[in-house]
Each structure stands twice: as structure tokens, then as C-alpha cells.
Amino acid sequence: MTRVAAIDCGTNSIRLLVTDLDPAGDTQHDLDRRLRIVRLGKDVDRTGVLATEALSRTFEALSEYAAVIEELGADHVRMVATSATRDAANRDEFVAGVVSVLGVEPEVVSGAAEAGLSFVGAVRGLPADGGAPYLVVDIGGGSTELALGTGGVTAARSVDVGCVRLTERRFPSDPPTPDQVAAARADIEAALDEAAGVVPIGDARTLIGLAGSVTTVAAIHLGLAEYDSAAIHHSRIPADQVRAISDHLLTLTQAERLAIGPMHPGRADVIGAGALVLRCVVDRAGVDEVLVSEHDILDGIAWSVVSG
Description:
- The protein is α/β, with parallel strands linked by helices.
- The protein folds into two domains: 2-108, Nucleotidyltransferase, domain 5 (2-Layer Sandwich), CATH 3.30.420.40; 123-292, 2-Layer Sandwich (Nucleotidyltransferase, domain 5), CATH 3.30.420.150.
- Helices cover 45% and strands 22% of the residues.
- It has helices at residues 44-47, 52-72, 83-87, 91-102, 111-123, 163-170, 178-196, 212-222, 229-232, 239-249, 254-258, 271-285, 297-307, and strands at 2-9, 13-22, 27-37, 76-81, 107-108, 134-139, 144-149, 153-159, 206-210, 236-238, 289-292.
- The two termini are 15 Å apart.
């Protein structure tokens, strides 16, 4: 067994997984999995830089993670940074701060690499026949990754529509107006047109949804009083429920969304945009349901350490 610490630093959240992996037996035993909403990418779409306050929040969370990693004694540490960091002019400041706190340099990966890691994490353990090809959609804060494949990725694309970016760009009102929702949807559809030039979205037999927007929609569909990752993992959301929940969330104020039992406080302001991205992908893929996975890019990062 190899003990690996994986860190995923996105636009909205920074997450940690410490797990024991056995490549020979293809087994995974998680010791710690946690999330902090730090909103690293706040206003990056507008300013092009990571804000000082956002960097401070991220380094504070990373200090907590560094202590956990030291306590659990990980053999290897890999940290991946995604959309917000790719877009930021001052990412060198971010990298230097991470090294000083964690002792490891973060890898600022491309959108295609991000999609590939998400795919590996999501499909591991699923049958290669019956449900394949899989379309894995990872809805982040700054971008959305789409990857299609069976045993491995055959096509992948990252597009700049994420729940934070869309909210900042298109939803100045709370709740957003119908015109604002229409503008956001037009952005999403244009991005999916771009992605479809590389990824044949309609070829998917199974759509696998990842990340907080998707798991929150799943929790609402399941009627959970509080977030329960075990209940959510590999649950299925019918397409009509994706549409209904998306439509409903976009009519609520942030305070009303925050009052929904399983809603994370750091997600209440952006969940409407995230659910809308999911709805548009479901419609484009023409599937009857979404298979929800709690295993995602974090798991892909971890396995990449031991698989070479």
C-alpha cells in the first residue's frame, strides 16, 4: 500500500484526500477527505489576478491540510491547481505561497489534463461494458471539463463556464432575472458548441456528473436533510428532475437557497449557475439520467501518483 495525499485547488474550493492505494489489488482506502470553500477565483474573470484576500484564505486552508498530511504520514503529495490559477497573471505569487506552506510546488494543469484526471477518478471501478462510453462532466467554479471514453479518455475539452464565473458575469440580481438566466444559458450553449467540436457529447451512454454543483442537486433530489456523501455517491438523478431543480434554484434568493438542508454555505450563491450548466449538458447529451460520483479529480490525482 502507498499512502498518497492529493490536493485539488479550484476556483471555488480547495480539497484534500489522503488515501492508501494498492495498484496491484486496485484497492483504495481513504483516511481523510475534506473541503474548504476559499473562492480563490473571486473576480479573476474580471481582474485577471488572484486577490490578496483569496490567496490568504487559500493558504490558511492549505496550512490545515499540511498538518493533516504530516499527521497521517503520506508517502507522496501531489497538488493540482486548475481554472482560476490558469487564468491569473499573478500565479507565481500563488505558487510561491503554496511552496512555503506545503513544501510542494502545485502543478497548474491544462484543461485537458484536468478533464483526464476527473475521468480516471470517476470511472475507476465502473464496468467497461454496459454503461460505456462514459461522458464525465466536472462542473467547477471557473470551468467545466467534459471527457468521453471507456477504459480511458478518447476525447476531452475544458470550457470557461463554471458556477462562479457565470454568477459573477451574468447574475447581478438575486435571484437572477429571466433575461440574465437566458444570457447565462447562451454562454453555456456556446461553450458546449465549442466542446462538441472535440468531444462527441451525443455518443455517451452514461453521463457521470462530478463536483459540488452536481452533488448538491443530487442531495436535493434525494430529499436529504443534510449532506450525506455515502447516499449521494452513485445515486442517479432523472433528467426531468435536473431540469426541475435547476429551474427552481434560479427562482430563489441566496438566503432561500442557503436554507435548503444539504446546501453548503459557500455554494448557496453559485448553485443556480452550476445547476444550469448541468441541465444544459443533460439536454445536449440526450440522456435520461445523471450518475453522480463523489470520486472525481481528487481520486484521479491520487491514482496518478502510483500509476505513473
